């Protein structure tokens, strides 16, 4: 399983546009076989930072989603919404793997402490 964590720097005066962008991508990621965990918008604190989390069963499925979304008309419309409104200033993408209680989980540890 692979989880994608996105950190967005958004225009706080374009929050409605960003919310529309997020609603579209929740539906799209789910349609492409992922599990979108939602967008997390500013409330208290920083007014220009938002987050999103979604999961795919494996890296191959995520890569297929990336390839297919590049030509999908609904995905392109969502990209265009962000471009036209400039609601997103920049973003960072991280790939994470979940940790569960199972001692047999693959991935190992380097033995180093954080």
TrEMBL record:
<dbReference type="InterPro" id="IPR012577">
    <property type="entry name" value="NIPSNAP"/>
</dbReference>
<feature type="domain" description="NIPSNAP">
    <location>
        <begin position="7"/>
        <end position="103"/>
    </location>
</feature>
<dbReference type="InterPro" id="IPR011008">
    <property type="entry name" value="Dimeric_a/b-barrel"/>
</dbReference>
<dbReference type="Pfam" id="PF07978">
    <property type="entry name" value="NIPSNAP"/>
</dbReference>
<protein>
    <submittedName>
        <fullName>NIPSNAP family protein</fullName>
    </submittedName>
</protein>
